[in-house]
Design goal:
The structure is a single chain. By secondary structure, the chain is mainly β. The strands form 3 sheets. A 4-stranded antiparallel beta sheet has the order 1-2-8-5, with no helix packed on it. A 4-stranded antiparallel beta sheet has the order 6-7-3-10, with no helix packed on it. The radius of gyration is 20 Å and the shape is elongated. The relative contact order is 0.25.
Length: 147
């Protein structure tokens, strides 16, 4: 019995000390472009060696970055979320050309404001890979004040 307790404690200690890989840090901002319009910015800072996939990925490839906005009476999403020109390369793992970003990327979304101030909320989904592994897709909730 004692050896079982020691084995469980050893496993838990090893499991707890395992490093969680989190190669993308997200930050957010908003800027008003008029009294009734704003642009919400989503910046991904990506660790060296990793890449974050574009919103435009063909079927059968990695999970594309996706933005979902919560319904609100304070704002309306206008158009699609924009992104800069990504790097596009053939990836053997997916057997296709895929588009992605390295180091950092800023996605932008226009919103129409129904009030002087609003809080744009929602979630984003993304996937990252490096030369050795891909991490499972991750979801992040966001809440961005527009003043």
């Amino acid at each position: 019995m004692r050896s079982l307790v020691v084995a469980v404690l050893l496993f838990l200690t090893t499991f707890a000390s395992a490093q969680i890989v989190n190669p993308v840090k997200w930050s957010y901002a908003a800027k008003k472009i008029s009294k009734t319009e704003a642009v919400v910015l989503f910046k991904a800072t990506i660790d060296n060696g990793w890449h974050l996939y574009s919103q435009n990925i063909p079927d059968g490839g990695p999970v594309a970055t996706k933005f979902e906005f919560s319904p609100s009476k304070a704002y309306t999403v206008t158009g699609k979320t924009s992104e800069p020109k990504p790097v596009t390369k053939f990836e053997k793992v997916f057997n296709m050309n895929v588009s992605y970003f390295e180091k950092s990327v800023v996605f932008q979304q226009k919103v129409k404001l129904a009030a002087n101030q609003a809080v744009v909320k929602g979630k984003l989904e993304f996937m990252v890979c490096n030369d050795h592994q891909c991490l499972p897709p991750d979801e992040v909730d966001f809440s961005i004040a527009v003043k």
